[in-house]
Every structure is written in structure tokens, then in C-alpha cells.
Amino acid sequence: MKGTYKFNFDNVLKDKIGENGISIDGIDELRDFTNIAKANVSKKYENGELGFIEALDKDLDEYEKVKELSKEFEYVIIIGIGGSILGSKAVHQGIYGSSNTYHPKVFYLDNSDPEKIYETLKAVKLEKTLIFVISKSGNTVETLANYFVIKKHMDKNNIIPAKPNFVAITGGGLLQKIAEKEGYMCYKVPENVGGRFSVLSAVGLAPLACLNVDIHNLVKGARKMNDICHTDNIFRNPALLNALIHYKMDNRGKKISLMMPYIGRLHQFGMWYRQLWAESLGKDGNGQTPVIALGATDQHSQLQLYMDGPEDKIMTFLKVNKFKQDYSIETDYDSDLIEHKLSELIISEQLGTEQSITEKGIPNVKITLSELNEYTLGMLMYGYELQTAYCGELLCINAFNQPAVEHAKKLSHAVLKGSIVEKSYNEIKIE
Ligand SMILES: O=P(O)(O)OC[C@H]1O[C@H](O)[C@H](O)[C@@H](O)[C@@H]1O
């Protein structure tokens, strides 16, 4: 499998966007600063703290077992939330799109919304469904709740699949205990792999292997990016360069990192990036707010704000040169569209938007993939994982924890136990 990745940073430079921009010399002068950040990441890796890098060396044969089992099933349900599911969603959509017409059909339970589980239960036959329950901590309430509801539903209705249909992927907690007691097939989430960095561990690879994603090429793409990013030369290291660009722009008040893919298959990738960037860097008063918009659709709902609203954004365009399918636009009416393909239209729209926001002085970078396949997606995702790790070091924060979320989790438990109750004194009620 082939494909190319290209990172373009013309439009953050002073000669393109004026005073908002940075200069090549300015980047070069920060060589020591970026190399310290890079060295710190390497040190953490050598200390065994960065499992997302170690994951690249793991043997993928262990996923053959679950892939073999999945052949017995027509549907796959993935139960998880946050880092335990966003990576699989991003990769599956990145390869297969959103139609869910492929075999096996996949359903995601990533919320405690009762209507969602109802719809899922209506859409699948549970005796023909392989069910992944994924939680690094093994204690996440939304994930456990969805598992309990499905398990009880199966028991009550005496639904017995031909082969055991639960697979647990966890690092411990209650899920680990359940998996042991029930005798589920189980994959381990290593302690040093953070949830949002876990797509290339069992968390992503086990379900993706069952969804007929070529995980070997996915990891191959990631390895390629890792090799490329070994260099200290920032102009040859896209993850380090993009980390520095975002860091510099953040310092200049660009508090929003806006990502705009011009292909629907990368929309979920944007959602994955949203967690990675937000949870890793949103600490101690730092952090850019990640926003995802889909080109060209959201040009017609958001672009006015991006162009003419607060000057608080750095944009990333994601573009592919080749689409899996294409259509010629044919009509007897007089139209500029005649003799063009749909792909040409969307590619032109990306360039038009890029030019107009550049003229406005809004900093923007662009990643172009020759095509979107496992190999290029592996490069893209791993590049962002490294970039996030580098950016954490530039900001002098720990990119690998999420203390504020843990506190909110504790309070949700307290509400469930009744020790916190909803009180409201100031409200407007309409009947
Ligand atoms: O994998 P789990 O332990 O179930 O955690 C799922 C998610 O839970 C929390 O919300 C954390 O903030 C996320 O980083 C994590 O990905």
C-alpha cells in the first residue's frame, strides 16, 4: 500500500500573512527550544512512559485470534468512550466512510443515552454480534452501564451466540474482574498507553482488525512517520514543526485550533484529534480549543465567522488528492461546473478558502494526502500523537494526564449516589 503525506506551512509565514506570521529565521532561532522538547519526549520514551511509541514495535499476530472469531459474526458493537473508542471510529470511517453497508456492520455505544442503545439493539441480532467492551481504567460508568444493559438483555431473552461474543480490552478495574469471571477473550491496555494515544494498541487494533481494516499498513504508516520525526531538523520533522507553529500561534492569541478536512471520511479523525489536543494540552490555563468543521459543507455555515470574526484561530486544512469514487458533472444548462468532476470542485473549494483566509492574515497549515488509506491514515494519526507530545513539552505541561476530568467523574458518582442533588434558584420556566 502506498501514499504520500505532505505538510505545508507557507501560510504561517510573514510574507504570506503579514504581521501575524512567523519567519523561517524565527523558527530556526528556536532550534534549541524545540530540540529540548524533542529530547524530553525521547527521554520519556526511554523511561518506558510512552507506550504509544512502544506500540509501533509490537507483534500484530495477537489480533489474528479475535479476527478469526469475528468471522462468525455479522455485526460488531464497540462499547467505550473517549480514547477507548474515538480512534477506532476515526480509522473505520477513514477507510470505509459512514454508510455502514460493509460487512460486518459496526455500531458504537459511546454514550449513556438510552435512546442510542435502544436503536442499536433494534438494528442488530445480538446472537450474531461480536461485542467489544473497551475501557483502560475498567471503571468508566458509561461503558460499564452499556455493557450491563446489553448483557442483561441477552440473559433475559436467552440469546446465546454460537461462539462467545464478548471481548474485553482493559487495563484493570471492574471490567478486568468481569472479564476474568465470565471468561471473556481479553486484551490488555498497557499502563503506559494513555487512552487518547491508544489507537495503535489493542484498543484500536483489535476491533479494527475485525472490521477488515488493514492494521499492518496502519502501523506501517505510523512507523514511517516515527522514522521521519527522528530528525532534529525541524524543517524535516512535520510533528515538531507543527507543534512549534501551534505553540507560537497560541502565544499570539490564536486560542482556537480549527481543523477543516475536505473529505467526509476524515470527519471522525477530527473528533479524535479534538480529544487528543484538548485533554492533553488543556491544563494550567494553557491549551487551544480544537474545533472541527467539514469542508466544503461548513463553508456555508461557519466561514463568515472564521474570516471576519475574532482573530483567534489557526487553521489546519486536510486534503486528499484522490477520491475512491468520482463523478463528472454533466448538464445541458449553462454552468461553470460543466466538464468538471466533483473531486475538482471540492479541491477548488479548499484552495479558494485557503487563499481567502490567507489574504485575511489568518495563519493556516495544510496536510495533503495523495489518497486516504490505512498507510496515510497511520502517518496522519501518529504524526498528531507525536505533535501533541512535543507541544506538551513546549508548554511545560504533562500531556498525558487529565486531572480535571477525573474530578468531574468523581462528582458524577456523587450525584448518582445522591450526595449531590440538583438545585436551581435562578431560572425561567415555560409551560
Ligand atoms: O478508557 P477509559 O478508562 O474508559 O476512559 C475513557 C475516557 O475517560 C475519561 O473521560 C478520560 O478523560 C479520557 O481520557 C478517557 O479516554
From TrEMBL:
NCBIfam families, alphabetized: PGI_Meth (NF040629)
Top-level division of the source organism's lineage: Archaea
Keywords, in A-Z order: Cytoplasm, Gluconeogenesis, Glycolysis, Isomerase
Location of the protein in the cell: Cytoplasm
GO CC entries: cytosol
Record family assignment: Belongs to the GPI family.
Function: Catalyzes the reversible isomerization of glucose-6-phosphate to fructose-6-phosphate.
Pfam families reported in the protein's UniProt record: PGI
Active site: 279 (proton donor), 300, 409
One Gene Ontology MF term: monosaccharide binding
Annotated EC: 5.3.1.9
Major place of residence: cytoplasm
Protein name: Probable glucose-6-phosphate isomerase
CDD domains xrefs: SIS_PGI_1 (cd05015), SIS_PGI_2 (cd05016)
InterPro entries in the cross-refs: G6P_Isomerase, GPI, Phosphoglucose_isomerase_CS, SIS_dom_sf, SIS_PGI_1, SIS_PGI_2
GO biological process: gluconeogenesis; glucose 6-phosphate metabolic process; glycolytic process
Pathway(s) where this gene product acts: Carbohydrate biosynthesis; gluconeogenesis; Carbohydrate degradation; glycolysis; D-glyceraldehyde 3-phosphate and glycerone phosphate from D-glucose: step 2/4
Catalytic activity: alpha-D-glucose 6-phosphate = beta-D-fructose 6-phosphate
